[in-house]
Design a protein that fits this description.
Blueprint lengths: L4 E2 L10 E5 L1 H4 L5 E7 L4 E5 L3 E9 L2 E5 L3 E5 L13 E4 L4 E6 L3 E9 L7 E3 L5 E5 L6 E7 L9 E7 L4 E2 L4 E2 L1 E4 L3 E3 L1 E8 L6 E6 L6 E6 L4 E4 L6 E2 L6 E8 L8 E2 L5 H4 L5
Length: about 270
């Protein structure tokens, strides 16, 4: 299996973790990511240390509290494929939080360097921007959970729903150079859910010089590391695809560069 794919455990560990990515395990500097699964009544506690966190409730309901604040009975969707916007909680560095499941719960904990510039807060679904990108079979639905217009030190978090037979992160784009204003350097993780668990998605990760050039078959619950390069995704017919993206880098802005070989798809009227 490719080193870019991170598989979940068969069962959660004693901290509820199904999957965990650290900067050390990924071989990069900024992005951390984990998925926890808890039964009703179970809880976990985390200390953020020098990292900020965004807790995204993927499915289920929970109570979340920090040292100073608490949010009760948050969460509304029981599956990401309801396509409703999620409840999330932002927690700054130098804090701690407790997550208690009120129902069976799956939550993503997204982390990146924090600098103490923001307070803990609830991100309600109504605050999550919804948009449709692309056209035809490159159309997909976006939920901007923590975009650069919203307060955070490093994190960028977004959900993407790709209908079966469609492509997303397309035309292929990259963000692996600190070359602002044209391109920002952002590490990225993709966490995949497939509506029918026996299904799969396909993701290609490649650089201009093809020193990295992999085509990955990704199944439900797996994550993909994108340290550099272009990274388009395809949802095969019959299998709707969801993924949660976490990005972070030295500057908190998303400026991408399209693969010049395929950029014509967005600008050539005959392709629409």
């Amino acid at each position: 299996m490719s080193k870019l794919i991170v598989k979940p455990a068969e069962q959660p560990d004693d901290q509820g973790r199904l999957l965990a990515i650290t900067p050390e395990s990924a071989g990069w500097q900024y992005v951390g990511f984990e998925v926890v699964r808890l039964a009703a009544g179970e809880s976990i506690r985390r200390v953020t240390g020098d990292r900020e966190a965004c807790i995204v409730l993927l499915s289920g309901k929970a109570d979340v509290k920090t040292r100073k604040k608490a949010w009760r009975e948050i969460g509304s969707r029981m599956s990401v494929f309801e396509r409703t916007r999620p409840f999330s909680v932002y927690v700054p560095n130098g804090e701690e939080f407790e997550l208690e499941a009120l129902t069976e719960l799956e939550a993503a904990i997204c982390t990146a360097p924090g600098f103490g510039n923001h307070e803990a807060r609830l991100i309600n679904p109504e605050e999550v921007g919804r948009e449709t990108r692309g056209y035809g079979n490159i159309e997909r639905q976006i939920h901007n959970v923590l975009p650069e217009q919203q307060s955070a030190d490093s994190l960028l978090v977004v959900e993407v729903f790709t209908p079966n037979g469609h492509w997303s992160s397309y035309p292929p784009h990259k963000h692996d150079r600190n070359a602002l204003p044209d391109e920002s350097l952002l590490e990225e993780t993709y966490y995949f859910k497939i509506e029918q668990e026996r299904g799969f998605a396909i993701q290609r990760v490649y650089t201009d010089d093809r020193s990295l050039d992999e085509t990955l078959v990704v199944t439900d619950g797996q994550a993909v590391l994108v340290p550099e390069g272009y990274h388009p995704v395809c949802a095969p017919p019959g299998y709707n695809c969801y993924y949660l993206n976490v990005m972070a880098g030295p500057v908190r802005t998303w400026k991408f560069h399209n693969d010049p070989d395929h950029e014509w798809i967005m600008v050539n009227p005959s392709a629409k």
